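name: query_chain
kind: protein
chains: 1
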Amino acid sequence: MTLLSNVVRGDAVLQQGPDASVHPPAELATICLPYRPESVGAARRFVCAKLQEWGLNDLVDDAAVLVSELTTNSVETGCQTRMLVGVRRPIDHVVRILVGDGSRSMPVMIQAGPDATSGRGLAMVHRLTHGRCGVTLLPFGKVVHADLASPGPISR
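structure:
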């Protein structure tokens, strides 16, 4: 078992961080969802629509996988409040997907066996983000984040 512990500083919370000048505040979007299985699909639709609006169509498929995995984990915490799902653009061609919940239990990446029916989600998140994922603990919960980068323009 490996603790997903790429802890980041305060910019992981569902607010504009100190780099807000890079993109206008409108390029942070959040949605509040109940802890129910159907919230996974709602979060996926929300994030994918926002990426399409921003013209980041090349990130939509991977973002759908990431937000599905992160919200599924959040739903399974058993919290009774609401989870927050956010997406923001810290810089061009990078999006950060955030899922905040009321549990301080840290996500754990496990080595799922070939017959296991679950347990591969955080490994997929780690692979899709090239390790650019982590957790920020809050006084009454946590925010899990995952960063996706598109190739972007080629600099010469």
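note: The longest strand covers residues 82-91.
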